[in-house]
């Protein structure tokens, strides 16, 4: 029996800014007004006609416009950036929304599309109907709809799936659809994966305005949740950062250092604040109301303290972090911070931590590994423990056959020099011609910056037989995600690499685009083939990845959390091979253990 679960689409109003343009018949602009703190909602009037109701404090009167399929065009190309335009043909009005929370705007647009697509049954003509459409009588909010994962729409209350007048079920929008919704409109977009109960609780805390640190072991969906949080906040006042360039690139943000404009924080707080006032980064601070920092475990505590103090100076307030809502994500049991002074301090050890962070939430449900035995072992390793049974299981993985179908397991190493040597050694052994792929960068002079902040380099060398890893989500539904392993089997007619992946998929890999924000808010982009040589990679660079086949040597472990990060990259015990496991390689920082013990005692 097929099982489908109903998902609710709420007709929540959107908030943001808008520009209202009144047009001449030829499409030229007759007048133009800008409004802030705008609220727009989908309503019905007394005649049950669907309307959009727009209001703002400085708006002379409510703007109520009919949503009729042959009258409204929905421009939704930039919904993910919090922007949308509605063009009303008969009224000669164009409304351009901006600075809306992307997730709320996305749902709002889906509801508009449904309302312009689903035609109500014919009814008798009513005198003066056109006049009544323009009157603000009997406005009521639209009720929510329900959508099943199978794609069918049902009204609240369980009525039959909605159909178009020709009795065909409403289809979902394909990725190839154009960005404009014409007279018939675009259909409902496929619903995103739903959040778990604990993830919804974190999102609710963020929406309440709390400054929060949410954590969890590897595979609990921290990055997935972070993306949903980002889409729920106003893009104009939200800055997405991470402690490393690669982590920032996965979220489409910048490093916290680029955002802040204080470099590595080597000077005094007053000097850093003065320097920032004169830099392009001051624009960031003026706009910032929500600051997100991912992989917070890698950020040095001393730097965090200076960042907080600079925020108070630049925002001219004594409120913690200058009154900015701070959203931190990461796992302190993973790799520790790197300090320029050599005196390492975790951010939770800083004096300002308790003032800045209002709520701490630990995610417990593991989504990456489904094997309960493996999850249990990883939870032990995370805490710096390793029972005899766990040790025996990990030692036995040396017999696992993780290579298959010409695809070798990625070797994780503690040191970059070993990684580079292994990849070069294996690449040179391959016969045949070397194909060179050069990136296309938006600013040629920023190559070094992009090399250090993105998971792909300026130049990629490939041969037939090269072991590679996908470094961007391309076709997640087909299993082609960041970390997917494969082997180059050839090159197609236009010269693109053909890769055979472990899941049996063979496909050409075309260039993808990465964008990262530098200091002052300037964005830089790179287009490159989303592959890297993957005979070996460092444990440090593997943090955040899921690998379906991995071979690990822990003989040279020198840092707390290294063994845990390496082992937790594997998606299953069957895909893991540990060459030299010894329980002594398992280490957790005592200060981190104590911090998480306090979290547990306080019921986070």
TrEMBL record:
<dbReference type="InterPro" id="IPR057437">
    <property type="entry name" value="PIF1/LRR1_PH"/>
</dbReference>
<protein>
    <recommendedName>
        <fullName>ATP-dependent DNA helicase PIF1</fullName>
        <ecNumber>5.6.2.3</ecNumber>
    </recommendedName>
</protein>
<dbReference type="InterPro" id="IPR049163">
    <property type="entry name" value="Pif1-like_2B_dom"/>
</dbReference>
<dbReference type="GO" id="GO:0005634">
    <property type="term" value="C:nucleus"/>
</dbReference>
<keyword id="KW-0238">DNA-binding</keyword>
<dbReference type="GO" id="GO:0016787">
    <property type="term" value="F:hydrolase activity"/>
</dbReference>
<keyword id="KW-0413">Isomerase</keyword>
<dbReference type="Pfam" id="PF25344">
    <property type="entry name" value="PH_LRR1"/>
</dbReference>
<dbReference type="GO" id="GO:0005524">
    <property type="term" value="F:ATP binding"/>
</dbReference>
<dbReference type="InterPro" id="IPR027417">
    <property type="entry name" value="P-loop_NTPase"/>
</dbReference>
<keyword id="KW-0067">ATP-binding</keyword>
<dbReference type="GO" id="GO:0003677">
    <property type="term" value="F:DNA binding"/>
</dbReference>
<keyword id="KW-0227">DNA damage</keyword>
<keyword id="KW-0233">DNA recombination</keyword>
<keyword id="KW-0496">Mitochondrion</keyword>
<keyword id="KW-0347">Helicase</keyword>
<dbReference type="GO" id="GO:0005739">
    <property type="term" value="C:mitochondrion"/>
</dbReference>
<keyword id="KW-0378">Hydrolase</keyword>
<keyword id="KW-0547">Nucleotide-binding</keyword>
<comment type="similarity">
    <text>Belongs to the helicase family. PIF1 subfamily.</text>
</comment>
<comment type="function">
    <text>DNA-dependent ATPase and 5'-3' DNA helicase required for the maintenance of both mitochondrial and nuclear genome stability.</text>
</comment>
<feature type="domain" description="AAA+ ATPase">
    <location>
        <begin position="208"/>
        <end position="474"/>
    </location>
</feature>
<dbReference type="InterPro" id="IPR051055">
    <property type="entry name" value="PIF1_helicase"/>
</dbReference>
<dbReference type="GO" id="GO:0043139">
    <property type="term" value="F:5'-3' DNA helicase activity"/>
</dbReference>
<keyword id="KW-0234">DNA repair</keyword>
<dbReference type="Pfam" id="PF05970">
    <property type="entry name" value="PIF1"/>
</dbReference>
<dbReference type="InterPro" id="IPR048293">
    <property type="entry name" value="PIF1_RRM3_pfh1"/>
</dbReference>
<comment type="subunit">
    <text>Monomer.</text>
</comment>
<keyword id="KW-0539">Nucleus</keyword>
<dbReference type="InterPro" id="IPR010285">
    <property type="entry name" value="DNA_helicase_pif1-like_DEAD"/>
</dbReference>
<dbReference type="GO" id="GO:0006281">
    <property type="term" value="P:DNA repair"/>
</dbReference>
<dbReference type="GO" id="GO:0000723">
    <property type="term" value="P:telomere maintenance"/>
</dbReference>
<dbReference type="InterPro" id="IPR003593">
    <property type="entry name" value="AAA+_ATPase"/>
</dbReference>
<dbReference type="Pfam" id="PF21530">
    <property type="entry name" value="Pif1_2B_dom"/>
</dbReference>
<dbReference type="GO" id="GO:0006310">
    <property type="term" value="P:DNA recombination"/>
</dbReference>
